[in-house]
C-alpha cells in the first residue's frame, strides 16, 4: 500500500502540535490548513497522515501485546543488543516508572507513539473535509468513515493501555476556558462506548472489499471495522474492565468512578452478537481458514509437512493470497532474522547476518497439546513426568524430528501447531532453500560448536528455542538473509472464531455453537473436536461441559493458535491472568553445554516481576504537571 504512506511524514509534521504534550491545543496556522485541504490530492495526503500513527504500530518491538506476554523474551544482561529491547524489559520489573514511562503512548516518548496527537489529526481532517472542491461525494464519505474508524481505534488502543482516558470528540477552540482544556479521564465504559460508536458510524460508508490491492491494501474495510468492534466489546466485557474490584477505588478528583462497581454479564451478549455479525460478513466474502497450496515448483510434500506449512503460512503468506487475513498493517514483519536459527555451515560462517536471538521460554512450548489434542499434563497416554528423558528421532517422526538425533521426549507426540510454531534442538526446519521433504534441514543447538549454538554474546539464543512460525519457510539464511516478506496479521479469521466461542461461553456457558467454532480451528490443526478429545484422552474428561472448564480451554486455544502474533499480551491482561502466567520462571536449556544430558539441564534465565499495577500504564510526571485535573493510574 505504497500510496498510503505518500507524504504522510510531511503532513504528520504539519499536523503536529507545537509541543509534544497532548494538551497543547493551539491550532496550526490557518493558511497552512487551507493549503492542506485546497484540493483532493492534498487532502488525501492528510488522510494518510491520519493513518500514519496506526502504520507505525506495525513494528512489533513497540507493541505491548508482543513484548509483554513472555511468549518471546529477548536476551537478558547482554552488553550489546541489535534492537531496542525496552519493551521486552518491562516484565523484568525494574524498567517502568512515572518520570519517563516505557512505551509512552500518552505523550509519545520512550518508544511510544503520540496517540492523542493522532486523534487530533483525525479531528482536523473531519473539520476540514468540506474544503476540497474536487473531492467526489463518494470518496468524501469513505474518507470520513476511515477517519472515524481511526479515531475509534486510537481511543480503544489507549483504553487497553491506560484504562480510563480522555475522549476527544473534537478539538478544543483556542478560546476555550482553561478548565475545558484541562480534560479529565472518562470512565472506561464511556471510552469503549465512544470507540464502538465510531465503528458503527464508519461501517456504512466503508468499502466491502479493496478493489485495487496494489494501491489500497491496508486501508480500512467494513469487515475490519466489524471485527475491531467485536474485539472492543469483548475487551469491555472481560474481567479487567467489567466490575474489576482491584480498580473500584479508581476515581477522578471529583469522585467520579472510572470503573463499574459490578460486572455486567450482558456485555458478553453484545460482544457475541458483534462477533457473529463479523463472521457472517466474512462468509459473504468467501473468507475461510487458510490451507497451504503447494506451488508447482516444489516437490510433492507429505500430509504432515503440509499441515505444518498450513499453520505457518496462515501467518506468513502474502495477504493478497491468504483468504484468512482480515487485517494487517502496512509494515512488513522485520525480525525474521531474529527467529531463524543457523541451519547450515554457510550460516555459521556468516552469523553476523542474523542474530537468531528471539528466544521462547519452555512454559510457552508447554501450552501446545499432545497429539491427542489435550494438554500434555492431562493426556492419559503421554508421559509428562518423563518428558525430559532423552530419545532419538525415529522414522515415524522424521518429518518433525531428525532421524537418529538425540533430543528429549518432550518434543515427541505433540500436535502439528507445536512443530509449526516451535524451533527446537533436533527439530526439522523445512525450507531455508532446501525443499526436499525427505531430506530437510534440522536444528543442531547443543553447545557453542553446534550450528545454532552460541557464537558470541550478541548472536545467541539464550534458551535454544526459536519462534519458528515467524519465519517464512522460503526465507533463507546462508550467506545472508533473503527474506520472503509478510505482514503480521492484526486480525485473522481463527482469532474471530475463538473470540466468538469465548463470548458465547461467557454469555451462556458451553453450547454446540461454541464447540463448533473451537473445533473449526482445531480441525485445521489436525485435531478432533474439543468434546471428543477430552472424553477420549484427558484425565479431566468433563472439562468442556462446564463454563469454567470451557473457559480454560478457550483461553489456552487462543494462546496456542495465536501464539507469537501479539495477541497474548492483551488477552492475558483483559482476562486478569497476567500475574498468574508470569509467576513462572523463564527457563530453557543450558546452551553452553555440548553433551546431551548436560545440554538438557534446565536453566533459569530470569523470573518475571509483575504486580497488579502493571495491568495499566502510568502517566508521566510531565503529563500530570501539565493538567491538574488528571489522576494518576491506580497503584502508581
UniProtKB/TrEMBL annotation:
SusD-like N-terminal domain segment(s): 114-227
Residue ranges annotated for the RagB/SusD domain, each copy included: 353-636
Keyword Disulfide bond attributed: no
Name of this chain's protein: RagB/SusD family nutrient uptake outer membrane protein
Keywords attached to this entry: Cell outer membrane, Membrane, Signal
Family of this protein: Belongs to the SusD family.
Location of this chain's protein in the cell: Cell outer membrane
Higher taxonomy: Bacteria, Pseudomonadati, Bacteroidota, Chitinophagia, Chitinophagales
InterPro entries documented for this protein: SusD-like_N, SusD_RagB_dom, TPR-like_helical_dom_sf
